[in-house]
Amino acid sequence: MNENRDLLSKYRARSAANGAAPQAPNPHPEEVGDGDPGGHIQRERHQIMLTLETRDGLSTALAYSYLSTIRFDPRGALELDFAGSTIAVRGVNLKPLFDGLRTHTTATIAESRGTAPRDPSEPFVEVIIIGIDANKDGGGHLAV
Fold it and tell me: In 10 A of CB 143, how many CB atoms?
């Protein structure tokens, strides 16, 4: 136990001598979306899980480690394959959401409670469909 404290003391002394203090990640994520609880929450570091929130209060968390495919259609569709089930996200301007999912930095996707995006450049999530069968339309192609 004392060895661990000694190692920690040496590390802190060395960091202080170099003028560097360990930086903790920002605990306050930047919310990107339409201002309502809707859109997505973007964080600076990789996330372990992705949380999906629907208008009716249902929250589902999925491990990024099971995300195998992300399909993006600029006409307003995203499909995520998680170990056998597919999640469909429909909305407007979903490219920033696609980029965040691709880099595992999106923490939450939430359905908007509003009727239209306030800023046309911000992502607007109209609906999240959990557990659709990707092979229903003959091959897993996006159906906008």
Answer: 13
The string over 60-92, giving b where at least 16 C-beta atoms fall within 10 Å of a residue's C-beta and e elsewhere, is bebeeeebeebbbeeebbbbbbbeeebbbbbbb
Tokens of 44: 């600076």
Residue with tokens 């629907």: 54
Alpha helices (H) in the chain, listed in sequence order: 2-17, 95-102
pTM over 0.85: no
Single-letter residue type at 63: A
Q: For residue 13, what are the CA distances in angstroms to 1, 5, 20, 135?
A: 19, 12, 10, 59
Q: List pLDDT tens digits, range 5-43.
A: 566 666 667 666 655 544 444 444 444 444 444 555 656
- pLDDT tens digits for range 44-95: 667 799 999 999 999 999 999 999 999 999 999 999 999 878 999 999 999 9
Residue 31 to residue 17: CA distance in whole angstroms: 37
- What Cα–Cα distance (Å) separates residue 113 from each residue in 72, 73, 140? 23, 23, 29
Q: Are 57 and 47 in contact (CB under 8 A)?
A: no
